[in-house]
């Protein structure tokens, strides 16, 4: 529902044409006592209140490089109402960075998103792209293991 510069539909159009169908799917999942998570690329922050109102449990593939997807604002405004999944920039940081920058950026994302729970660390897209250096993937995994474990004191 989002592009690089924001939602593909206004909140009004989204609410009128998409949300009723999405809500039926969310309700179906909940009828089986499942948590329902939506994969949505791009900048879609203006749609998040509608998704929460529809009962969605989680958002996958938060892309912080897209318009309106400021992690601090997302966590502050919606972190108590919906789970966020992703947010470690797979298009810029993981592909173009060094292991050191990946470590620093991953730690920064964890410091913003993990406190209070409601965050699953991962790449900002549905896959880690093949051109991503293996060292950078390992740096992300190592950083998440070190700082993203809620069971360790001081994390989250």
TrEMBL record:
This is Uroporphyrinogen decarboxylase (URO-D) domain-containing protein. GO terms for molecular function: uroporphyrinogen decarboxylase activity. It holds the Pfam family URO-D. Residues 6-147 form the Uroporphyrinogen decarboxylase (URO-D) domain. GO terms for biological process: porphyrin-containing compound biosynthetic process. InterPro entries: Methanogen_methyltrans, UROD/MetE-like_sf, Uroporphyrinogen_deCOase. Gene3D superfamilies: 3.20.20.210. Coiled coil: none annotated.
């Amino acid at each position: 529902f989002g592009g690089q510069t924001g939602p593909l539909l206004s909140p009004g159009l989204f609410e009128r044409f998409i949300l009723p169908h999405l809500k039926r799917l969310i309700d179906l999942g909940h009828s089986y006592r499942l948590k329902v998570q939506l994969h949505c690329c791009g900048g879609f922050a203006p749609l998040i209140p509608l998704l929460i109102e529809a009962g969605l449990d989680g958002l996958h593939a938060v892309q912080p490089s897209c318009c309106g997807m400021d992690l601090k604002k997302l966590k502050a405004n919606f972190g108590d109402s919906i789970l966020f999944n992703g947010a470690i920039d797979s298009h810029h940081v993981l592909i173009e960075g060094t292991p050191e920058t990946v470590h620093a950026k991953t730690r920064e994302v964890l410091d913003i998103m993990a406190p209070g729970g409601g965050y699953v660390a991962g790449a900002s897209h549905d896959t880690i792209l093949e051109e991503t250096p293996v060292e950078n993937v390992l740096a992300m995994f190592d950083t998440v293991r070190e700082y993203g474990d809620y069971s360790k004191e001081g994390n989250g």
